[in-house]
Amino acid sequence: MPYCVMCGVELENKLKSCPLCNTPVYLPSEPDGDSQKPYPERTEKRRTFYVNLVPSKAFVYLMTFVLIIPLIVCLMIDIRRNSTITWSFYPVSSIILAWILMAYPALMKRYSFIKVLTIDIYSIVLFLVSLDAYSGNLLNWSVYPVASLLLIWVYFLLVFLLGKRHPFVLAFMAYISTGLYLYLVEQATGSAWFFDLALPIITLILVLTLITLALSRFSLFKGTALFGLIFCSISIFCIGTEFVVNRFVFGNGFSLFWSLIVAGVLLPAAIFLFFVRKNEDFRIYLQKKFHI
Q1: In a domain, 1, yes or no
Q2: Which residues are within 8 A (CB) of 239 and not within 5 positions of it... i.e. 6 or more apart?
Q3: 215 Cβ partners below 8 Å, 6+ apart?
Q4: Cα 77 to chain center, whole Å?
């Protein structure tokens, strides 16, 4: 019911003016769907929580001047005592590495996670190689950490480029990268274990990963059945790994022990998860019983 804007008397809907003060009745019409509302409804946008790990430029400037002091002191003491750079190379290179890892993201206008990771890893690689070369042996002990860091960088790069779009290609590329890394380690150590030990294990991982990815696309292996499928894959992986290790170390691959214990725990759990996925009444009972 409308009210008079002058005397506040409640009016009927059909009246054109107030019966007491003859003030015209103002009835605002409902806004059309296309017209703009005088007070539009605004919903609060949910912003994703973001943690900025990049320091500010002011902090970088401060730390730059702080790091310059020990750098100059080390160089002055070493040159004053030995007339050349000897031991000061190690603290000076470490200080420069610390500055690079800290400063360059803040000084860049645009950066991404993969770009920051790339610069970090290659800075550490250059630092390790320089330490190894300065000690008199080029690519001696530094081969192992450098190869490991490059493998980590390849993993992140593959995930960044492929991600969820091409999981099968991602699995193949990770298999090839891991194989090359292990073969490089074998050649650096001068031993022979890649073709008899490492290659069968990573090939087993690739096969189980591809089978799991292929079966997970079917509705039968969704939900809890997916975890059951993963448990089955882990059980087969453990059995195959123990078989390969026993054949490589003892020459007998059929004496299985610890992998059977793992399979004895995971396979019944997988069967239970498959049953939960298949039986809807039992699944509803578990959801009500455990409030999930």
Answers
A1: no
A2: 256, 259, 260, 263
A3: 221, 229
A4: 44
Residues in the chain, total: 292
Q: Which two three-digit tokens encode residue 70?
A: 């020990």
- Answer whether residue 69 is part of any domain: no
> Residue 276 is part of which domain span?
214-292
Domain for residue 260, yes or no?
yes
* 163 contacts: CB under 8 Å, gap ≥ 6: 170
Which parts of the chain fold into alpha helices (H)? 57-82, 89-107, 113-134, 143-161, 167-189, 199-215, 224-249, 258-278, 280-290
Q: Which residues contact 88 (CB under 8 A, 6 or more apart)?
A: 74, 75, 77, 78, 79
DSSP string, 93-144: HHHHHHHHHHHHHHH-SS--HHHHHHHHHHHHHHHHHHHHHHTT-TTSTTHH
- Joined together, the tokens standing for residue 170 give 């991602």
219, part of any domain: yes
* Per-residue model confidence as pLDDT tens digits over 125-150: 999 999 998 887 777 888 899 999 99
In angstroms, the CA 120 to CA 129 distance is 14
The amino acid at 187: Q
Instruction: Indicate the number of domains in the chain.
Output: 1
Query: Which tens digits make up the pLDDT trace of 203-243?
Result: 999 999 999 999 999 888 888 899 999 999 999 999 999 99
| Residues in CB range of 5: below 8 A, 6 or more apart | 23, 26
The predicted pLDDT at position 50 comes to: 47
pTM value is 0.70
